[in-house]
Amino acid sequence: MSDTILIWGAGAIGGTLGAYLARAGQDVLLVDQVEAHVAAMNAHGLSIEGPVESFTQPVRAVTPGAVSGTYRRIILAVKAQDTVAATAALKPHLAQDGFVLSAQNGLNERAIAAEVGAARTMGCFVNFGADWLSPGRILFGNRAAVVVGEIDGRISERARAMHATLSIFEPDAVLTDNIWGYLWGKLAYGAMLFGTALDNASMTENFDDARYFPVWNTLGREVMAVARAEGVTPLGFNGFDPTAFMPEAPEAAARASVALLADFNRHGAKTHSGIWRDLAVRKRRTEVDAQIAIIAEIGATHGVATPAIGKLVALIHEIEDGTRAQSWDALDEVLALCR
Questions:
Q1: How are the residues of the chain apportioned to helix, strand and coil, as percentages rounded to the nearest 5?
Q2: Which of 63, 74, 136, 218 has the most CB atoms at less than 10 Å from its CB?
Q3: Under 8 Å CB-to-CB from 46, ≥6 apart: which residues?
Q4: Residue 215, Cβ density class (10 Å: 0-12 exposed, 13-18 middle, ≥19 buried)
Q5: What distance in Å separates the CA atoms of residue 85 and residue 257, rounded to the nearest whole number?
Q6: What is the CA radius of gyration of the chain?
């Protein structure tokens, strides 16, 4: 068995990580279900483009059906809604002493642990901006937080090793004993990003528009209320301050955090979220059920109401189904619940 890093999902996140790790001399094998993407990477390399830096890295890539052998280190980077199927597909290739690291958005570690076992699951939080442009091409829009940690909070040797590996890509990567805190923090920020995808304005334009502050404030507070009910202590990153959205937090703190989010996104090449891109450009379903609807489901088990989250999920579904256009009118419907 080699010590190759298998990256399952070579889109925006997995592709970017794979290109940087391969450039640093790591033995990486990329797996992607898009045959044209795999063919382009094998023929011409994987091109990373954008303001951070641009380069083309020779890589090895295969489709899921062509994977053979077993691997100790598997980075899972598929869309959240594909986690269960992807984990089942990769499971035969996971070494008994290996682990799956989830470089995804959402609480996918739960689904991965259910399939391969908690002891073979490692958490990861990523917030850098990237978009899949076309076969063999990825936009790396901006650097941002990368955090790794065991799901039981231990600081293990393998977590230290993966932290060192991910630091090749992001020198400021963090090793944490509270990965769930980062993941729940990202859920709150993610709920806001889904809100910005209801219309066609940029993320910064949405966060800058004072009319819609109640939307970001309410979404953040609903997620934080569920996190508290779960016994999680959310952690902040890149301008997002979870304590600003706790039930007892003053509105001024939330306004300050939203202003920082606007400023953070103002300086990146990625003007719109991947959610917006899924809806407006790629015309495909988003991660809303796996990433956002689950918040309402968990909240319900604790008796925590999440009406704004519920409305947001319903509106995203309508856009996915083609029965509603992305517009300010959609965001206005969430706003009506937040005043």
A1: 50, 20, 30
A2: 74
A3: 10, 15, 18, 19, 22, 30, 56, 57, 59, 61, 136, 138
A4: buried
A5: 36
A6: 19
Of the candidates 278, 224, 274, 271, the residue with the CA atom closest to the CA atom of residue 249: 224
The rounded distance, in Å, linking the Cα atoms of 291 and 136 is 27
> Torsion over CA of 127, 218, 258 and 299, rounded to 10 degrees?
-30
Q: Which residues contact 176 (CB under 8 A, 6 or more apart)?
A: 147, 148, 149, 182, 235
Structure tokens, 72: 């100790």
In the DSSP assignment, the letter for residue 88 is H
**Dist. CA 25–CA 6, nearest whole Å:** 14
Q: Which residues contact 276 (CB under 8 A, 6 or more apart)?
A: 196, 197, 200, 326
Q: How far is CA 294 from CA 81, 223, 229, 241, 333, in A?
A: 11, 11, 14, 22, 21
Name the amino acid, one letter, at 270: K
- Give the residue among 339, 330, 210, 333 at the shortest CA–CA distance from 275: 330
As a dihedral over the C-alpha atoms of residue 102, residue 106, residue 107, residue 108, rounded to 10 degrees, the angle is -40
* Tens digit of each residue's pLDDT (9 = 90 or more) over 201-214: 999 999 999 999 99
Q: Pairing between strand 46-49 and 55-57?
A: antiparallel
Cβ neighbourhood burial of 30 (10 Å; 0-12, 13-18, 19+): buried
Q: Report pLDDT digits (tens) over 114-157.
A: 999 999 999 999 989 899 999 999 999 889 899 999 999 999 99
